[in-house]
Amino acid sequence: MGVDSVVLIGLSSVLVLVGLVVVQGGVHGGIPTTLDGPFKPVTVAVDDKFRGRAIDLPDTDARVQRNVNGFEPEQISVSLSSTYDSVWISWITGEFQIGDNIKPLDPKSVKSVVRYGKSRFSLSRKAVGYSLIYNQLYPFEGLKNYTSGIIHHVRLRGQKSGLKPDTIYYYRCGDPSIPATSKIYYFKTMPISSLRSYPKRIAVVGDLGLTYNTTSTISHLMSNYPDLILLVGDVTYANLYLTNGTGSDCYSCSFAQTPIHETYQPRWDYWGRFMEPLVSKVPIMVVEGNHEIELQAENSTFAAYSSRFAFPSEESRSSSTFYYSFNAGGIHFVMLGGYIDYNKTGDQFKWLERDLANVDRKITPWLVATWHPPWYNSYKAHYREAECMKVAMEELLYSYGVDIVFNGHVHAYERSNRVYNYTLDPCGAVYITVGDGGNREKMAITHADEPGNCPDPSTTPDNFMAGFCAYNFTSGPASGKFCWDQQPDFSAYRESSFGHGVLEVKNETHALWTWHRNQDMYNDAGDQIYIVRQPERCPVEPEVEGALVQDLEPEPVHGDRALACEDDENRVLAREEDKDDEEDERALDCEEDKDDEEDDGALAREEDKGDDEDD
Ligand SMILES: *[C@@H]1O[C@H](CO)[C@@H](O)[C@H](O)[C@H]1NC(C)=O
Ligand SMILES: *[C@@H]1O[C@H](CO)[C@@H](O)[C@H](O)[C@H]1NC(C)=O
Ligand SMILES: *[C@@H]1O[C@H](CO)[C@@H](O)[C@H](O)[C@H]1NC(C)=O
Ligand SMILES: *[C@@H]1O[C@H](CO)[C@@H](O)[C@H](O)[C@H]1NC(C)=O
Ligand SMILES: *[C@@H]1O[C@H](CO)[C@@H](O)[C@H](O)[C@H]1NC(C)=O
Ligand SMILES: *[C@@H]1O[C@H](CO)[C@@H](O)[C@H](O)[C@H]1NC(C)=O
Ligand SMILES: *[C@@H]1O[C@H](CO)[C@@H](O)[C@H](O)[C@H]1NC(C)=O
Ligand SMILES: *[C@@H]1O[C@H](CO)[C@@H](O)[C@H](O)[C@H]1NC(C)=O
Ligand SMILES: [Fe+2]
């Protein structure tokens, strides 16, 4: 490690550092702000007391077992639409099968109905959605195939004006005609989008997996009572398993000879069951990581990811499950895909340009971007791996004044100073890596700037991301070299511990970021800072087309369409018969497609997109 880097050992030294910052001018109860920065890089030394291996929950753990009968809903979750007035409810019915000669369930055989209302005693509104199944097929001798239970997604939209902001709704999902319905759950909608209203706490986690350490991350997270959860990719780590259920901490080390990188898809069901108590109440927004690729027959990828979660893709005018956007109060989130085309000529980039051009910072002052592989990472693991994505997209994000970027992928914690193109810049974003959710792979501990740890540039690209863009630096303190010889100046704080973060946006200019380590008491902070926006100093590109996806003016089309699904049962049936209504047609379309989808639920479902939302 270089002589200039500040190396601290243990928590007491961190407290000393925080004290120093207060002297430098912090005025927020001892918590530093980004205005006090850029900060000298801090590395918190690894605490060897916490180096126990992360071990997956076995399939015998009660928390991952199926505890419903017949076609009763399980793995229930809530996720947001693009605006507060609508949410998605998702669940699974029926049993998955794994083995030889599996016979996929018929998604049409179980209806997708949510009854909901503002009172637990009067679930007077009704919404109907669609259902699908997906398969994970391995046409190789000795490997087992998987077919999912029936996955249901229902979008709740109110009559005319939509769901009310900041309001608790009770719901029950399932198929009342079987009957097979859930008990009653509740969720709270996001506040209205404006300068003055924000969800109180947004939890941010990455690279979760399903180990005993994951369970401690999630219980700490729950104790912080988040209003929303962001999962920045790498969800279940089902791809650390063979199809016969044998797992490993390192797939390629343990199973070097397999004909294809196998997965054990039941781990997804285990994960859905483990998470249900949390995500049936608190909305979760997920973006894909490399562990979701899950290559299978016919080069199909991301089948579980794209099928199991609901994404506000159509609502945010994306045609893909891999990138989308949404508002949560006065924050606009863009969720980006690192493992699909991100180049300037591609669909994602064009969508991002349109999406950013439509953000009205007078309504959503905060702009937060999220994707899986980090651009600013000083650990040896995945060092400069996503450099081509950075080259393609950084200028665009900067020109629109993205305030904060959340990433995962590196199994540790790191927070940057404000930075743009490797140069400290008061108008650059703060990059935060929280790939420290607790999965069973190795924790990232070594740093690229330590002697002998700088990777050879040719080894840095990820096979799945294509391209090579990580050349030696041409300016700055590391000019002419591939790595720094001390903790880079862009890296403000790094520490190898498991944990999660909480973002509390207070107003138009101040957001409090707190990183919680699993080994600490619940209310302790490992790292804490006010991220402060300076809109006068850092003006952003003016909006172009007006607020297409903003909350304040819901599109009338939505209200009309919602009617048929929201009224009482008879009317829905009537409307279904005259096929007057897009929502119901969409539900039918989706179900009619199922026969063609048997080989690949995810892709067929994507092709359905785009019919509904174009005005
Ligand atoms: C992971 O959990 C185990 C107990 O299951 C614990 O001993 C270990 O310290 C944890 N690891 C970290 C990095 O927190
Ligand atoms: C799995 O599905 C593939 C593709 O349909 C098929 O070729 C293979 O025989 C199946 N394997 C088993 C074990 O059923
Ligand atoms: C799964 O397959 C691997 C590799 O062939 C083998 O070593 C292991 O014993 C098998 N496990 C089970 C539970 O059959
Ligand atoms: C799958 O991808 C490989 C490698 O890119 C290619 O050779 C093969 O033809 C593809 N197979 C199908 C069915 O598309
Ligand atoms: C980033 O910096 C590099 C090296 O200094 C330069 O070649 C490149 O043009 C810069 N990119 C942007 C978008 O400014
Ligand atoms: C994106 O651009 C990089 C660098 O120009 C290139 O190497 C890569 O192949 C491109 N990726 C795709 C998916 O087009
Ligand atoms: C890039 O930097 C590395 C050291 O980090 C050095 O070994 C290598 O020669 C440099 N390559 C070029 C092309 O300058
Ligand atoms: C924004 O919130 C911060 C932190 O709570 C506070 O110090 C500041 O005065 C607030 N600014 C405005 C304009 O309300
Ligand atoms: Fe990853």
Explain this structure to me?
- It is an enzyme of class 3 (hydrolase).
- It is found in: Secreted.
- One of its GO terms (cellular component) is extracellular region.
- Residues 565-577 have a biased composition (Basic and acidic residues).
- The protein has 615 residues and is of the alpha+beta class.
- It has a domain at 1-65 and 193-233 and 322-553: Purple Acid Phosphatase, chain A, domain 2.
- The protein has twelve helices and 29 strands.
- The strands form six sheets. The chain has a nine-stranded mixed sheet. The protein has a six-stranded mixed sheet with strand order 17-16-15-27-28-29, covered by helices on one side.
- The longest helix has 14 residues, at 266-279.
- It is globular.
- The N and C termini lie far apart (58 Å).
- The model is unreliable at 1-27 and 544-615 (pLDDT under 50).
- Bound molecules: 2-acetamido-2-deoxy-beta-D-glucopyranose (8 copies) and fe (ii) ion.
- The site of one 2-acetamido-2-deoxy-beta-D-glucopyranose has 9 residues, from helix 2.
Q: Which sequence of strands runs across the widest sheet?
A: 1-2-26-22-25-21-20-19-18
Tally of helical runs: 12
The CATH topology of the domain at 1-65 and 193-233 and 322-553 turns out to be Purple Acid Phosphatase, chain A, domain 2
Q: Let me know the average pLDDT.
A: 86
